[in-house]
Amino acid sequence: MCINLNIQLELLNGLQEKGLCAERDFKVVHGGFTNGPVHCLKHIKGTRCVVTNDGLSNKLQVWDVGGNDSDVIKSSGCIQPTRVSQSGSKIAPGLTGDLHVLHGSQICDLQLTDLTSGSSLYSVGKDIPDVLSSLQFVTGSVFLACTCGGDLFVGDTRTSTVPTPTPAEGRESELWCMAASSGLSSPEQGRHRVARLSSSGLVVLSDLRDLRSCVGQAQLDIQRNIPSHDFMNVSWAPALDNCLSVSGFNGLVEIYDTSTWIPECRESKPLFVHQGHVMSSVSHPSIIPPLVTSHIWHPSRPQTVLSAAADGSMHVWDWVNSTVAP
Fold it and tell me: Cα(156)–Cα(147) distance, rounded to whole angstroms?
């Protein structure tokens, strides 16, 4: 899901030159505008509520996505965290549809906030300055947080216990992000697998019950042609066994089958590569292919993926591989 971002400065200047006022002479009929960038965006399941962060501070913006007869996106408030930071926040909506979000830029400023009242329902309460790269609920109250250094923290919003850390081993110099599977598509229902992706293209798989043990890993065949890894992303397919997707290294989205991965590292080739975002630059060698900035699996269509790139393009696409069964 996407919000139409900022009114461009050139458009505003053009309106003023013609004696027009954006607020007085124009009416938004689809989407909405923000006063700043949107660096992170999450939808609250079962509601018309969207929460964003601009990447410039840890303050959150709350939005109402229209009604039954409208798709206009309007601001409905903002959340000022208890601990102020000049770094952007990661956001994790709950799994139950409650108007609560877990958010923070570091482990120490993680808090669960009620979006209706703005009150804090949970906070870590310990000075752990590690910067967050990923944040996700795995049950209604248990969450998993990954730091940029690859350490994993497991916490429970029902208790005041400090999240339990599982340090990364041997690759602290790399940048990391992570994703946990839903536990619904695995042979053992309720078993959560955790995939950690490094900036070198290494993926390490663990079982949530024992995060210190590696159950599989692979060096991905990825072309890395960007100076930063701000949009590095790994995601499990919610309705397919053993499939995960990777983006943020270039203009591609790559899908991998993890069923044959073992604890000893070896190279893995993708099952499928979506190249749609780079096709516009094929006939124009001088154009730099746009970086894929985000992708997500469709929750109920097993082989449908949505992806977006830095040029503003958004694709909804299916992929087919005869060796993968829903």
Answer: 17
At 37-75, the pLDDT tens digits run 889 999 999 899 999 999 999 999 999 998 777 888 999
Please answer whether residues 245 and 256 qualify as being in contact, where contact means their C-beta atoms are separated by less than 8 angstroms: yes
Contact 25, 14 (CB under 8 A): no
For residue range 310-324, list pLDDT tens digits in order. Answer: 888 999 999 987 565
Contact 88, 57 (CB under 8 A): yes
Strands 210-220 and 267-268: parallel
Reported as type and span, the H/E element at residue 135 is strand 132-137
Sign of the C-alpha dihedral computed for residues 268, 255, 180 and 292 taken in this order: positive
DSSP 197-230: EETTSEEEEEETTEEEEEEEEEEE------S--T
Closest CA to 305 of 232, 230, 253: 253
Q: How many CA atoms lie within 13 A of 233 on its CB side?
A: 23
Distance from C-alpha of 133 to C-alpha of 91, rounded to nearest angstrom: 10
Q: Give burial (CB, 10 Å; 0-12/13-18/19+) of 4.
A: middle
